[in-house]
Amino acid sequence: MSTPVPLVMAPPKGRGKPPRHFVDLTPEERRAAVVELGEKPFRAKQLATHYFTHLTADPARMTDLPERTRETLVGALFPELLTPVRTLSADGGTTVKTLWHLFDGAKVESVLMRYPGRATLCVSSQVGCGMACPFCATGQLGLTRNMSTAEIVEQVRTAASSLAAGELPGGPGRLSNVVFMGMGEPMANYKAVIETVRRLVAPVPDGLGMSARNITVSTVGLVPAIDKLAAEGIPVTLAVSLHAPDDELRSELVPINTRWTVDEALDAARRYFDATGRRVSIEYALIRDMNDHAWRADLLGEKLNARGKGWVHCNPIPLNPTPGSKWTASDPAVEDEFVARLRAHGIPTTVRDTRGSDIDGACGQLAAEEEQ
């Protein structure tokens, strides 16, 4: 029996929209909003400096604004969108998963990972996910709703603030990388995700001033959205969650493949490289006796090479366990053979780190559970 093809762009109705937040607005709209509240336009830049540079939305810390002014502006433009409910840590405290309640009671998770020399935040872009990949805990939740730009950016700001305050081992630091690999299919919430990217890369104080090269947007292969992203002129890294090189198996593992095939997804990925010059990552969860056969590694290598050299990098990922799943990670020897086959085809290949798996914070494990 074939798996029903999920809806791509239409989230379920019945949930209210998140309240308007300062971050949802462009710099011009921020000035207009401040004026509408009876304040001078320059207040918008002060607010942006506090939010994006000082990483705070706390009116008590905005001491360069009159007290009445800050209370008015913050009250109107900085509604509380995310409330931390629980944090779990692993890897000696350098991996932290946070469960958030959103304004409507919906739940999402983000994962902050600190490495020597860099810190990466994995953000959620939807509540649940509509892609229905059977080996992914998030995919089994179904889609509740899209997240707003500000809801996504708030995950980033709080992580950056935590690092700056030295709350993770290693002392004060800065957030260097953001990956859209948390809950949801980012390309199915395209408008909010690309607006988030714009806030992340905009120079301070209008944004966080991050490098586009340090931002990764993942997708299971929504071809029109990949082409749209390629035309944005923002050279983020594209990651395509492939998981199988043949349509028969991929349609079982990634149901959207019945709309856009393996070849169509890879062609779009190659077009992205041509437009941006950014090497594309191919994500491949290795599932024991399912997609980890040597011949599939060879087929993947052949398909990637058929589209040229130097445009792609492959990230095999040992499947992270999810409750009730019938599938598990490949045998280490099989994983080694799969990687060796890819490298024999000249494909740069790196096995993905599975940090956070013991707190259900690794790829495919985010399910926003209240209890552990």
UniProtKB/TrEMBL annotation:
Annotated ranges, domain Radical SAM core: 115-358
Coarse class of the protein's main subcellular location: cytoplasm
Reactions listed under catalytic activity: adenosine(37) in tRNA + 2 reduced [2Fe-2S]-[ferredoxin] + 2 S-adenosyl-L-methionine = 2-methyladenosine(37) in tRNA + 5'-deoxyadenosine + L-methionine + 2 oxidized [2Fe-2S]-[ferredoxin] + S-adenosyl-L-homocysteine; adenosine(2503) in 23S rRNA + 2 reduced [2Fe-2S]-[ferredoxin] + 2 S-adenosyl-L-methionine = 2-methyladenosine(2503) in 23S rRNA + 5'-deoxyadenosine + L-methionine + 2 oxidized [2Fe-2S]-[ferredoxin] + S-adenosyl-L-homocysteine
PROSITE patterns in the cross-refs: RADICAL_SAM
Native source organism of the sequence: Cellulomonas marina
Protein name according to UniProt: Probable dual-specificity RNA methyltransferase RlmN
Binding residues for S-adenosyl-L-methionine: G184, E185, S218, S241, L242, H243, N320
The protein's required cofactors: [4Fe-4S] cluster
Family assignment from sequence similarity: Belongs to the radical SAM superfamily. RlmN family.
Entry-linked PANTHER family: 23S RRNA METHYLTRANSFERASE (PTHR30544), RADICAL SAM CORE DOMAIN-CONTAINING PROTEIN (PTHR30544:SF5)
Molecular function, one GO term: rRNA binding
Free-text cofactor note: Binds 1 [4Fe-4S] cluster. The cluster is coordinated with 3 cysteines and an exchangeable S-adenosyl-L-methionine.
Alphabetized CDD domains for the sequence: Radical_SAM
Note: Reaction proceeds by a ping-pong mechanism involving intermediate methylation of a conserved cysteine residue.
The enzyme's E.C. designation: 2.1.1.192
